[in-house]
Amino acid sequence: MRIFTLFLFISSLVMSGCTPSDSTDTSSSTDVRPTPAPESGMGRLSLALTDAPVDDAYSVVVQFNKVSIRGVGATDDIVFDLDPVMSVDLLTLQGANSQTVITDEVVPAGSYDEIRLFIDSVPGVQDSYIVLEQGGAQYDLEVPSGTQSGLKVKGELSVPEDGSASFTIDFDVRRSIVKAGNDNSKNGVKYMLKPVLHLVQDDQAGVIKGTVATGLLDLAAGCSDDDVDTYNAVYIFEGAVSPDDIDNDGVEPLTTALVAYSNESTSYEYEVGFLPAGDYTVAFTCNADIEIVDVDDDLKFTIGRAAPVTALGKTVVDFTTDDLDSDGDGVADIVDAFPDDPSQS
């Protein structure tokens, strides 16, 4: 299961991606009236959703019915009911795009340490579901904790008095969707959502984006097939590390993104948003189809490229055939071929 990500975005005046100019709000709201200032001791709260694409599902629809937050040391939640409920195909929210959930809700200023997302997931109703291919069957997406106690994320967040705060929840579905059974099972195929959630502060986050040369997308480059449009992904790792797959052992990617052809630029591009400021390693693979979570898979990566991210900044990392690492030793093929030539280092 490829990755995609769900983010919670808290802001009072600007629905931004990692940079304000890049965000696309897909909500249908047309109310552009000025927002009055909050009362003393209060701040404003807005929530939005965003997602990173996957390549082995056509749509992943999740129906949200409410959101709650809890202050540090508090016993009661502040609850925002969604009426009507909101059904979101997460795969339509990519890059820096977002879907508004609530806007400019006034909340007490202060510190909060828990957020919960409540999801409708009734067996047989298909309020939340997954479709693997265009025109294919819909499978119920069961969310064991999402309907009653909600999907919980812990983290430190603060809403300033007379101001706003912006945070993001990373909803890592690559690690979260579990397939059970098969067509011959008594209960057939089931998909369960057991999410891994992380909290990010938006004004301390940035973007990594770039292009991938077509020479990295075919069998000659070690890809799974000769179709330049399939199984291409960029993996993002924290710190300076050697790239590895998702196997719950050693180095693990923070997130991933698919590579897609852009008619506008006539090149293959990727973009990863909502990354906390810091140092990252970025690597490309064209074997994303063999990634099985919790299994040590033999993905072939390019060399890892350093990618420092600054708050609200953009870091560009373009991959070329000079980044090929066929033997997986962490050294580019061009350097292996000319070990004594400093110009190739």
- The ordered string of helix (H) and strand (E) elements is EEEEEEEEEEEEEEEEEEEEEH
Radius of gyration: 21 Å
Secondary structure class reads: mainly beta
Low-confidence stretches: 1-24, 26-34, 338-345
Q: How many structural domains?
A: 2
| Proportion of residues in extended strands | 35-45%
The pLDDT mean sits at 82
Extended strand count: 21
Biggest sheet: strands, sense, closure?
8 strands, mixed
Q: If helices are DSSP runs of H or I spanning 4 or more residues, what is the number of helices?
A: 1
- Report the end-to-end length measured between terminal Cα atoms: 36 Å
Measured as a percent range, the helix fraction is under 10%
Give the overall form: globular
Account of the protein in words:
By secondary structure, this protein is an all-beta fold. The protein has two domains: 20-29 and 42-204; 206-344, Immunoglobulin-like. The protein has one helix and 21 strands. The strands form five sheets. Strands 3, 4, 6, 7, 8, 9, 11 and 12 form an eight-stranded mixed beta sheet that branches. Strands 17-18-14-21 form a four-stranded mixed beta sheet, with no helix packed on it. It has a four-stranded antiparallel beta sheet with strand order 16-15-19-20, with no helix packed on it. The chain is globular and about 60 Å long.
Which characteristics define this entry?
345 residues, 2 domains, four-stranded mixed β-sheet, 1 helix, 21 strands, 41% strand, disordered N terminus
